[in-house]
Design brief:
single chain, 141 residues, alpha/beta, two-stranded antiparallel sheet, 6 helices, 7 strands, 38% helix
Length: 141
Amino acid sequence: MTNAIEHFTARLTFETDVSDVHAAMTAGAAGLVVVDSRGAQAWAQGHIPGAVHLPTADIAVRAAELIPAGSGVVTYCWGPGCNGATRAALEFAKLGYQVREMLGGYEYWVREGLEFATPAGPQRRPADELTAPRRAVSCDC
């Protein structure tokens, strides 16, 4: 039983989800920096409003100039089929940042009906009922 407790505690320490990140951003959580680790074309296609664009390959060189020391960093990439956010989180951890990976990535941000930024301005799609309740802020889990 101890192994299961340690496992799930570690997951909750180092992982978060779209709903929790959105709630933290909406509440203005102090010191929170959300980082999009995708490349320039993906960023331009759409990204989380307020996120910092810092591709994984640039983290070691540019993190200190873009992310204040002591910040709580949340990384995201495309979605659950991509481990880019995991690689980005590892790079931040190597630099000593407190970091979490956002499960679901940009895909689930959009699929849960949350606003995203594009060159044409803010956009939002209806929530996908397979990923989020239609009329509720979260699944209450």
